[in-house]
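This entry is listed as follows:

___
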Amino acid sequence: MAAAMRRWAELQRWPRPDITAEAVAEWEEGLRPLDPPTLRLLWLALEVSGWDVPAPLDTWSLFRPSRPAANQGQRRRDLVRSLAALGAPAGLDPEQLNEALEETLKVDGALVEGLVFVARRFPREWGQHPPQVLRQQVHAHLQVIQALLDGLMPGDARRELESAAATAATLAGLISLLVDLYEDSAAYLRMGARLAESAGDAEVQALALMFASYLSSAIEPDAQFPDPALANAQIEAAVRLVSPGAAPIARAWVLLRAAQEHAWAGDELAAYRLLDEAERLSSIGQVPADGLMSPWTADTPMTFQGEVAAMCGRHHQAIGLFEAGLAGLGPDQVARRPRALSDLAAAHARQGNVDHACDLLAVACELARRAGLSDRIPRIVAVRDRYLAAHAAEPAVRRLDELVVTS
């Protein structure tokens, strides 16, 4: 990380030899503050969108192992050991992986097939494991693929690996988004969109852009830097990518997301037209067995429909949809329940059901704590601040505040 930041500083023509590994460690531990120029270098190194990056530069990526000319064999062995320590997420023998990394002019077809299979299997596991565990596995798998992509290989094998890496990066971005790690999410999703475009995988590129739109959307109660114009531009780009030849489920998902933004902007007619078209597409589409769209179920549209109804003032309808969506979550979907409960609580708060909204947020907080999902608490606080701030003096809200503090 320090080397990457120094490289960016040199490219900007103001060297920063003071940025060392020790300095990075002190930033992580909170022992040294980050001034704005240094923070800008950090963002550039992480490839987070929002800064002007000169187009011709080969930007360094956090997710790709460095490839110095000297001591390459030792670097590869170090990578193999680190992946093995994470549990060999691709199910590969470390020696087999080391041989693959050494083979720069040839990539074994079976290895490519296995890596693609694992990358496309991960989305089906969302909600069944703590998010931080699944994200670690996906990230490690992404590192494996990126290490191979640094070598030479036939074009079809490269496109398959790029598509698999795009799927993994986009899923990691979605997980990071849902647990409020916004900078991580931006980095992953930017990588996912770029790799998908290189692979010619329009559907994954569209989903990466669609998920990225949440980072700048004003509909999120805990949005850090709302920019509705940017969110709409990303959604429009996603719509173009999935129309008209993409799989119906992919098109439906993007249209549901577009409906949310129209509802937030007050265009109820357009929002419900998009919901109707998404419902039509989902009724004729076949859910794939793997890949980013594999978690889709018949209940998936309910959350979107509920949010649109709530934003259009149809609170009773929204509550019914949120309750149905929550009831549809199986016992293995523990990681998704706190967010679903927060959405339901927001709808009750909008309707004026302050006590019940607080009860739901309290349950969400307790579930998050028990499941080790402390990163969900900020969203619960954001829902409370947006919809219950006017009732801060009421006993139910005070009890909720005390519970959140102790969590």
User: Anything to note?
Assistant: Residues 155-178 form the longest helix (24 residues). The chain has four domains: 16-42, 46-53+75-200, 223-296, 304-407. The mean pLDDT is 80. Residues 223-296 form one domain.
